[in-house]
Every structure is written in C-alpha cells, then in structure tokens.
Design a protein that fits this description.
Mean pLDDT: 95
Strand order of the largest sheet: 3-2-1-4-5
CATH architecture of the largest domain: 3-Layer(aba) Sandwich
Radius of gyration: 20 Å
Number of strands: 7
Number of helices: 15
CATH topology of the largest domain: Rossmann fold
Shape: globular
Low-confidence stretches: none
CATH class of the largest domain: Alpha Beta
Strand content: 5-15%
Order of helices and strands: HHEHEHEHHEHHEHHHHHHHEE
Amino acid sequence: MKYCKKCLQTDTRPNTLFDENGICPACNYFDTLKNVDWQERKDELATAVQFGKDNSHSGYDCIIGISGGKDSLRQALYVKKVLKMNPLLVCLSYPPAQVTQRGVDNVTNLIEQGFDCITINPAPKVWQNLMKKGFLTYANWAKSTELALFSSVPRLAIAYQIPLIWWGENPALQLGDLKTKGKSGGDGNNLKHMNTLGGGDVTWLLSEEIRKNDILQYVYPSDEEMQRANLRITFLGYYWKDWSLINNGNYATLRGLDIRQEPPEAIGEPYGITSLDEDWVSLNQMIKYLKFGFGRTTDYMNEEIRLGRISRENAIKLAEKYDGTCSDEYIKGFCKYLEITIEEFWEIVDKFVNKNLFDRNEQGKWTRKFQVGVGL
C-alpha cells in the first residue's frame, strides 16, 4: 500500500494507477488546471448545450439524475439558470424502509425551485433481496442499488428522447477511476465501466427468485442503444473551476439543503453533507475502509489538500480520526432491514477485510497495520 506523494490517495483504490513519481491521477489532473484555457472549455460546454437543444424531441433538452443532495442541487440550478436549458430531473428513490425524511425534504426543496421531476421506485421486495445478495456476496449492499441509480437516467433519457445527460464529477480525472476515461474530459459515455458498476453486468443479480423482467431498472443501456438514441453523457464538473464536495455543500446549504447533525464519528466524516437521503452508506464506507484502507474522510481531504485549504499533516489527523467509523445504530437498522443478525453482519464483513492492511486486536477489533499518509 502506497500513498500519493501530494494527497492521501492510496494505490489500493480500484482502477487507479500512480505515475513514476508516485503521484495519483487526480493530483496530476488538478495540476493541469492552472494551464487550462477556460474560454476553450466554455466554448466546449456551449457546444454540448447546443447539442442538447438541437436534438431534443420531447421539449426537455437535457436530463439530470438527482437525489436532492449538494451536487444535484447545484447542477440543476446551474443548468437551468446559467445554461438556460430546460432539464428533466429523475430521482431513483429508496424504498420507504430506507429513505430518510431528510432525503424526502431535500428532493422537495429542489423540485420547488422550479423543476419537473420523475421519481422511479423499483419494487421494494426485489430491491431488498438484491441488496441482501450484494452484501452477502460482496460485502457491498450498494452494488445492486448503484446499478439502478446509474441505469435509470440513460434509460429514461432514451424513453423520453432526451439527447443529453449531465453528470457531476468525472471519476477518471477527479477520483482516479481510469476505466471511466472517455474521449475527452467531458465525455461520460464510459461511465458504466466505473468500479462499482462493473461495466453494467447484471448476471449476478439473477436467481430462481429474481428473473430478468424483475431487474429492468437495474440494466444499463447497451452501447448500441446509446448510439441509436444519439445519447451523450457529459460531466458538468469538468467545466467548473470550483467543483468540490465542500464547495458544492456550501452552495447547496445556502439554498435550503438539510444536512446531517450527527457527530462525525457516527457517519465517518466531519462535514455531514454527503449521503443525506439514507443512513447505510456510512456503514458501506466503513466496509470500504476495511477493504481498501481509506474512507469518506480521505475523499474529502484529498480535494481539500489540492485546493490548499488544509495541510497534508492536518488532513492525516482527520483521516485517522474518522475514516472507518460508523454508528452502531446504523448497523442495527441495516441488519433489521436485511433480516440478518449483527453477528452475521460481522461474519460477512470479516471475510472481506484486507488482511494485508488490518490486524485483529485482543478485543476483536480491526486495527490498521499501515500509517496514514505513509502506507505499509
């Protein structure tokens, strides 16, 4: 395990590759921003906008997937007020047993600012069964739900003949997930190859109980379907100088976003501005930490280090304090939903802990072998 020489990115992040100087792709990309011709990017953005307007067949010239959270709120307002487009919002909603009231309120806040929105609600029992299968098989309950989340937007765009999808950050450039890299920094048509989506493969979802017709909302359109629809996915964050988790959070909070008030150690990060519509992403981030050695706090810190708003030394302290932490109450609620015991939960998690990175102490807790910011 090695750390980027500049930020706290680890080489254990799936699909990343450090350069010969030990620098991660996201830091190398950030360094190029000082030489960017922003007028050229503005012109490129204008071309994407015109493509949407010229090829619209429904009255909507673009579509945005939203949760009501910080990123989707900022994107939607920018597209409508700055780009002067007429977007259709699509929200893949969690079932009642999972969604938080905060999440419902945030979607309402966004819609009330002048948007049409379609909400998609996959069958709750199928959703629950697939979540359980994802957790028991991969220790990742979100493996199925992210398929539905990312597939719902292009599926609806094709159905409504909307030519342009705006997405947020480019994972290849801003996170280092190089499998999503497209023909340009704004090209998002390889999004389904990001680590959590596995190229859109859904075969693992199928069983005697779950048939193909049960998982239509989880199936990402094929390349051929995308091409026939002349559909483009464009990363809006590529065209913004100030795209970041905290910048987006500040912007959205000033416009009605309801954020978390829990202690940082309950949610694994110090800001409370992410994953507002349900509570179990926090435990998935805890499991991510045990698999790869980094959690959500590290993701925040990487951006803040690059922006010069925190020193690497102080970022290390926050990552040490909060990465991998999660409230026991969230774990209890999750186990109740999946109808498993807490003992069964930890039996599954323990199987997927990276034993190269963690040891079990005398109290049975996993402790890191590595030094944050240094590695093994």
